[in-house]
Structure formats: C-alpha cells, structure tokens
Specification:
The chain is of the alpha/beta class. The chain is built from 10 helices and 14 strands. It is globular and about 60 Å long. It binds adenosine monophosphate and magnesium ion. Adenosine monophosphate (AMP) binds next to strand 6 and strand 10.
C-alpha cells in the first residue's frame, strides 16, 4: 500500500528530494490529487505513465509556483497570459502554450505545446517551493477511473505501489480538474471545462471557442469515457426516476437531489443543489456509490444552468458514457 504522510516540513523536504532524484510523489491540489514528477526528467515522466497506465499520447500538466517558474516551461508568455495568471493564479486554470525544449518530451506525448498551471493548495505550493522547479502531474488515479479528492482515494487507486508517498492534504475543495484553455491556436479554446468558466475568461481573452466534446484529438485526456465508476452508470431525468427504479430488479444506488425520490431498498446519495458544492462532492459520491457494489448507479440529471454546471455535466457525461 502507498503511505499517507503528514505534510509537515520534514516530509515536504523528503517529497521534494524524491522528485529531484527522478521519483514520483502523490500530492494534494485544490482540484484533485496529482502524481508528480520533475517536468524536465524524461525517465521520471515515463514512471508516472507506467504507474497510472496512461497512454503515452496523453500529456501531463506542469505545475508551477508562479509566473517566473511558468516561463521556464513555456515560450510566448504574452499580455493575455499575464492577465489570466494575475486574475486566476494560483487556481484551477491551465494554459496550453508552446513548450520550451527542456520539457521532457514523454511528459507531453511528444507535442510542441505544454499545459501549465499554478495550484493554490498550500501543500502543493510548499512542495513546489522545496523542489525549486516545475512538477508535472496527472490526476492520481488509474487511467479512465474517478479522480481522487482525498489521500485515501490515491491509496485505493495504487494499492500495488507500496513505495508511493502520498502527502496528506485533506479534501480537494474544488473537486473537479482544472479548466484547460488552449492559447496556442488562433482563437483561444477551452479544451476541458472547469471551475473557471468561459464567462470569466472572455473579458480577458475575448471570445472563447467552445470545448470539443467527442474524440477530442487536441486534448486526448478528454476522451468520451473517463472519470468512470466500475459499476454501470446511467443518467436519468427527474421525471423518469420513479419509472426507471420500478424497472430495476435489484437495489441500485442513486445520486439524487432528494432522498424522498429514492424508495428503499434503493439507496440515495443526496447531492447538493449548487454547482460548486455539487462539483466538490461528485467524485467522492461516485466512489461511494461504486463501493456499495450494486449493479447500477443512476445519476439524477441536474439542471444545466451554465457556469460551473458545464464542467459538472461534462464529467457526468463521461462517467456515464
Ligand atoms: P489530468 O492531469 O489527468 O487531468 O490530465 C491533463 C489533461 O490536460 C490532459 O488529459 C489533456 O486533456 C490536457 N492537456 C495537457 N497538456 C496538453 C497539451 N499540451 N495540449 C492539449 N491538452 C493538454
Ligand atoms: Mg485525469
């Protein structure tokens, strides 16, 4: 089993030295937990892909402390980048830009661009500070599975990696992966919706092209089935829940707005009505639903009122694909 350790000064120093020596450490961010390695170390990046069983074409995000560190990873840091970073960093916004030659090619699927983000979680920041250089990290889950929002989730994912160190950082309060904004093309495009919405970005970068949903060649990690429980998962409209449950021979789990609409022996996991709270609770709820070991998870489709709901619906679509 991986070891969860308290993120005190000694363990942060230890984690930083593991990364500097080409190793891999799991650490908390405000979005989800990450599996981090030295951005400039080819072999370390390959180790992340091995542990995660990630296809080599799916690029990692380089995490940085601040703008000067970002400039060690990307080229073409312009006025737009400066304004975006000043508005949203540290925070859940990832920028895709042309890469510097020093970035390990295997960490970015051999691309000419690299994604960069400055996390706000204090443990991630202390780790970056102690390491003194960028840390590339995907979410700390096996490919295709639900992203981890607690240290215990990382342990569940990598139970066969006894040497993996997991820095404890509580619950990731955003709970969904960062917004990925591609600035390497003519018109900025959101490749993955997140807590920073298009409406928040367009005052700075002008019109933002819509995210692509299916077969997104430009952002391989956003494939149609992702963030998925092991149990078959289905979306259902509120009006159809009663009928759908009547047709289930065995008890199922429902992520629902209210417990009353889920009669026993079916089990309800009640979801918040506000987008941010829903997002923060989603992955943990899917894990909980999965662990109940029923043969179906139903998710009551929340209304899509725009904003952060776009990101929630994006993840729900993939979880149930
Ligand atoms: P993860 O860290 O597991 O949430 O995955 C990071 C995601 O960011 C990837 O799956 C891609 O979708 C996206 N991404 C990272 N780097 C790039 C890049 N250079 N170009 C386009 N998308 C990227
Ligand atoms: Mg991921």
């Amino acid at each position: 089993m991986p070891k969860i350790v308290k993120a005190d000064a000694a363990n942060i120093r230890k984690a930083a030295s593991i990364i500097r020596d080409g190793g891999v450490v799991a650490f908390p961010t405000e979005t989800v937990y990450g599996l981090g390695c030295d951005t400039f170390n080819e072999r370390a990046a390959l180790e992340v892909y091995r542990i995660k069983r990630r296809p080599s074409s799916n690029p990692l995000i380089a995490h940085v402390l601040d703008i000067p560190m970002a400039k060690r990873v990307v080229i073409g840091w312009d006025v737009r980048c400066q304004k975006l970073a000043e508005a949203f960093w540290p925070g859940p916004l990832t920028l895709v830009l042309p890469r510097r030659a020093e970035v390990a090619p295997s960490s970015i699927g051999g691309r000419s661009t690299v994604a960069v983000r400055s996390p706000s979680h204090q443990v991630a920041r202390q780790l970056l500070e102690a390491t003194g250089s960028p840390i590339s990290a995907p979410s700390a889950n096996r490919t295709g599975r639900i992203s981890p929002t607690k240290a215990e989730h990382v342990v569940e994912e990598f139970s066969d990696e006894p040497d993996l160190m997991v820095l404890e950082g509580g619950t990731s309060h955003v709970g969904l992966e960062s917004t990925v904004l591609d600035l390497s093309r003519a018109r900025p495009m959101v490749l993955r919706p997140g807590a920073i919405t298009k409406d928040m970005l367009s005052p700075i970068v002008g019109e933002v092209a819509d995210p692509l949903f299916a077969g997104q060649g430009s952002s391989p990690g956003t494939s149609s089935r992702h963030y998925a429980p092991r149990t078959r998962t289905e979306m259902v409209d509120t009006a159809n829940i009663e009928r759908r449950l009547q047709s289930c021979p065995d008890p199922v789990v429902v992520l629902a707005s209210r417990a009353e609409i889920v009669p026993p022996p079916h089990v309800a996991i009640v979801m918040p009505s506000e987008a941010k709270e829903y997002a923060a609770k989603l992955y943990e709820s899917l894990r909980q639903a999965d662990s109940l070991d029923r043969n179906l998870i139903l998710i009551e489709r929340p209304a899509n009122k725009g904003g952060v709901w776009e990101a929630v619906h994006d993840r729900l679509r993939r979880a149930s694909a």
